[in-house]
Amino acid sequence: MAAIRRHETAPLYRQVKDHIVGRILAGDWPEGERLPSENELTRALGVSRMTAHRALRELSTEGWLTRVQGDGTYVAEVKPQSALLEIRDIRDEIAERGRAHDCRVVRLARQGATPEVAQALSLAPGAPVLHSLVLHREGGTPVQVEERHVNPAFAPGYLDQDFTRTTAFEYLGGLGPMDAAEHVIEAELPGPVVRELLGLGPAEPCLLVTRRTWSNSLVVSRARLSYPGSRYRLAGRQDYLANMGTSQ
Amino acid sequence: MAAIRRHETAPLYRQVKDHIVGRILAGDWPEGERLPSENELTRALGVSRMTAHRALRELSTEGWLTRVQGDGTYVAEVKPQSALLEIRDIRDEIAERGRAHDCRVVRLARQGATPEVAQALSLAPGAPVLHSLVLHREGGTPVQVEERHVNPAFAPGYLDQDFTRTTAFEYLGGLGPMDAAEHVIEAELPGPVVRELLGLGPAEPCLLVTRRTWSNSLVVSRARLSYPGSRYRLAGRQDYLANMGTSQ
DNA sequence: TCTCGCCACTTGTATAGACAACTTCGGCGG
DNA sequence: CCGCCGAAGTTGTCTATACAAGTGGCGAGA
């Protein structure tokens, strides 16, 4: 096993984590496989035991590894895949329903990150971010307002795309593999811009899905998807092959 | 600030974490408050800086604190969150946030299935179903109205339970393994009953999660969970999906 | 007055060493 | 053969130290 490159910008424990995850994903260490001990990793990677320990401990809490004191470290068994919120292209969804999809690019610009956006993207406040606001229609009626803040470090050419032909996620997904996603769902009364775009009444609620996606530990983008609450719903079904435990 | 008791069985960093969370929950450190620096905590609690640092770092990743390098540590603003991709007992969720859970049983009765309920439970219209309406509170404020229609073929003794002590989920889960679940999420303006129970204003939207669960191909129950949209959110994160495909 | 640079302070990382807690396994005595 | 004990190896924690990196403020100089 080669020593970890120390001239990387990322912290050492991060490099160790990435190295281990890479080995798992590459199939070098299948499920249930016993990993080298901390002392062996320490020698093999040329880091201190505390650094290796931190990497292993964090991978354990993240579900990659199972550690047993006095015994060893093992590759965790995969948890049953739950796909309540499938990540899909809205254009594909609409096409599957046999409706016509079209969209309007309302705004497409580079701007400084507000504190909130900066935090969401793990950037410094004021750092440049790429911003887009797109209205999606299904058979002529508005169904989604997609506001997106994109990390320029991941997709520097984002603003040059024609989003009436290629959807934002299609473009972003082509730039690199996404390895994590986070969803937050809220109900809210929309602001004037979203209300206007969706054609909602003054008291009509709105379903807001905020989705962040990661690629290689980098926050790629944060999307705020607003749906007309009365006309749209999110649905999903999970089948459990294994037991769900004692409590439902 | 008193020194951490060292004769505890729990590890020191755990005691430090519990101490800090306790202070936050007690209101000593309100949201946005700046915490003592690591060096101050080190002196005050009688632990090494690395131990204090580990406690603070973990509390940061758990969402209790916000840390800014070169500046300081602050109490994060907390918004109650419900796991989206997991099916969990609301009582456990609230307990995990360190808040007090209590609930009020508004209605508990046998009734004939309306066409809509009959379809949801795959029963004949007018067939007897068991109905419950429960208000859940977190630290005194209402967070969820749980309306549930239960298939009597699966849980004939449903109405005899004391749902102030045992949640419906807990009871149903104990009767048999759940092998499928379906979620539908909507935003809507609540009806007068739900609005009254949640203490919402006339134009405040509501997050409605409709969940059906199956056991052995039998529809066990349909739950309609209403959350105050402005005060509650559903969140979920999927880590390191192997392949998210090309689509969004 | 404005600006630049320095300094104090904060958090982030890395290391070496020590000990504690736990598991496994093999040897030894009954 | 069975059971107990201890050695070796593993993970878990704690400490002291050092340096890196980032923030904010203060003061000197233009």
Based on DSSP secondary structure assignment, what is the total number of beta strands of chain A?
9
The tally of domains of chain A stands at: 2
Strand content of chain A: 25-35%
Relative helix content of chain A: 25-40%
Question: Which sequence of SSEs, written as H and E, runs from N to C of chain A?
Answer: HHHEEHEHEEHEHEEE
Q: Distance between the terminal alpha carbons of chain A, to the nearest Å?
A: 44 Å
- Arithmetic mean pLDDT of chain A: 82
Task: Report the C-alpha radius of gyration of chain A, rounded.
Answer: 22 Å
Strand order of the largest sheet of chain A: 3-4-5-8-7-6
CATH superfamily of the largest domain in chain A: Chorismate lyase-like
Q: Structural class, judged by helices and strands of chain A?
A: alpha+beta
The CATH topology of the largest domain in chain A is Chorismate lyase
User: Can you tell me the CATH architecture of the largest domain in chain A?
Assistant: 3-Layer(aba) Sandwich
Main pleated-sheet profile of chain A: 6 strands, antiparallel
Structural write-up:
2 copies of one chain form a homodimer. The first copy, chain A, is α+β, with helices and mostly antiparallel strands. Chain A has helices spanning 12-26, 38-45, 49-61, 90-96, 115-121, 168-175, 192-198, and strands at 65-68, 72-75, 101-112, 128-138, 141-150, 180-188, 206-215, 218-228, 234-239. Chain A is elongated, with a radius of gyration of 22 Å. Chains A and B meet through helix 6, strand 6, strand 7 and strand 9 of A and helix 6, strand 7, strand 8 and strand 10 of B. Strand 9 (234-239) of chain A pairs antiparallel with strand 7 (180-188) of chain B. The structure holds a DNA duplex (30 and 30 nucleotides).
